[in-house]
């Protein structure tokens, strides 16, 4: 079982460049609806109450979840060459309740399996520590433990990665059916999706490099350097204040925006292509709907 990632990405680039409005316009609207709105909310003077701040953060997270579902819908329509528009980002609000319940169900499943795996992996580590294992063996065991936890998170995320597209295709089936179907569709195909997702790591490294350049620039202007940050607790506090300051956050977002406008629709369209390819491998093409009913 294998999917040609290079061909899939080539078709994704080809189809996203044919959209009207252009893909970067949709990505810019998505950025404004998520990061931009978050900035605006941060400017609102709120009472100094942890409860109120948590409440607004929860609302923002739920809203962002629904908007991201709209981005998945745009990508699915783009892959199927159905000429989506910017308004596709708003289509998720017509099934907002189902989207939120689905994402909550995925979160609870991931958390539950993660805790089970973490407990299982922690037992031999605990036994070795109690038995007084050597420093080398202890460090190696801890490395395997944390590597196992990271691998668990990746596998679980891949397991439910197709759920949004399944919900977009058949929203009347409810929020839990896409979760089960995603698990079924991804059985034996997680490595293929992982290869596709990992192929975008170069773009993420570019974003990371640009962000680090902005941070280093502001730290240098503040008279701070990494040796000072590491060795002096007071300097570390000042550095963290600089890194989390509005100028750093705004400039780092601006310099990474060009990459974001290309990478986000590119990756989402490729993932939608993987979903359709998986459907073709699982059933006859005639059984697939022509267009999501949203």
Can you describe what's shown?
- By secondary structure, this protein is mainly alpha-helical.
- The chain has one domain (5-287).
- The protein has helices spanning 5-16, 23-42, 50-79, 96-130, 135-159, 163-169, 177-185, 190-198, 201-221, 226-231, 233-243, 246-282.
Work out the strand percent. Answer: under 5%
| Termini Cα gap | 31 Å
Extract low-pLDDT stretches: none
Structural category = mainly alpha
Helix content: over 70%
What is the arithmetic mean of pLDDT? Answer: 87
Total number of distinct structural domains: 1
- Overall, the morphology is globular
Number of helices, counting only DSSP H or I runs of 4 residues or more = 12
Order of helices and strands: HHHHHHHHHHHH
Q: Kindly report the oligomeric state of this protein.
A: single chain
Quick overview of this protein structure:
By secondary structure, the protein is mostly helical.
Chain-wise SSE layout:
Elements: H1 5-16, H2 23-42, H3 50-79, H4 96-130, H5 135-159, H6 163-169, H7 177-185, H8 190-198, H9 201-221, H10 226-231, H11 233-243, H12 246-282
Helix pairs in contact: 1-12, 2-3, 2-12, 3-4, 3-12, 4-5, 6-7, 9-12
Notable traits:
294 residues; globular; single chain; 12 helices; mainly alpha
